[in-house]
Amino acid sequence: AQSVTQLGSHVSVSEGALVLLRCNYSSSVPPYLFWYVQYPNQGLQLLLKYTTGATLVKGINGFEAEFKKSETSFHLTKPSAHMSDAAEYFCAVSGNNFNKFYFGSGTKLNVKP
Amino acid sequence: SQTIHQWPATLVQPVGSPLSLECTVEGTSNPNLYWYRQAAGRGLQLLFYSVGIGQISSEVPQNLSASRPQDRQFILSSKKLLLSDSGFYLCAWGGGLTYEQYFGPGTRLTVT
Predict the structure, then answer these.
(1) In this model, does residue A64 exceed pLDDT 70?
(2) pLDDT band per the 50, 70, 90 thresholds, residue B96
(3) Which end is more exposed in chain B, N or C (fewer Cβ atoms within 10 Å of the end residue's Cβ)?
(4) What is the sign, positive or negative, of the torsion defined by CA atoms of B86, B87, B91, B96?
(5) CB-based contact, A35 to chain B, within 8 Å
(6) Using a CB-CB distance cutoff of 8 angstroms, which residues of chain B are in contact with residue A46?
(7) What are the distances in angstroms from CA B43 to CA A49, A80, A91, A106?
(8) Predicted confidence (pLDDT) at residue B91 exceeds the cutoff of 70
(9) CB–CB of A103 and B104 under 8 A?
(10) Which of B61-84 are b and which e, b meaning 16 or more Cβ less than 10 Å from the residue's Cβ?
């Protein structure tokens, strides 16, 4: 069975500070992992994904995530937060037939000036 | 390129009224299609998904139903809305061999 846990429903950072959003997964098969961002009243936009190969994946807007199998983690980072990064972020893992996604409960990122 | 449309963008309906939300995808064929709901302050709840015309999988027993009358059309319906049906409804395509899912702009439904 697959599941995702996002630690921290709200994270607040100062502009220019490191962003770290945590995601741990449970999967009975090699996982495919995703991070999405959602701005208010909009759909979800894919930030990055891990399928196979390099465990450090880079996405849009300067975000990256590292797949750590031993820790069952896929944390999202960005070296320097920008005000425009304020949004809700969702981690997801695909099911064993890739037809279903299992989403975390989301983390709202607040960026302080 | 692929595009996903949802309409209407916003909807206010009284309790007990019917519902029909539509989602269409352009630029791809035989996509997996999904309906999700976000209630206020909560994450995404998968409602239905479809891997082909007429094939609907229901994830949560509820007051809603889904249909896929055409390859790239996915409809979410209800015969009688409840207050608890309020939320933000998102359609998505992808999954399967596409791996990632792509989301539409969403429909904000308020049941009064």
Answers:
(1) yes
(2) low
(3) N
(4) negative
(5) no
(6) 100-102
(7) 19, 26, 11, 6
(8) yes
(9) no
(10) eeebebbbeeebebbbebeebeee
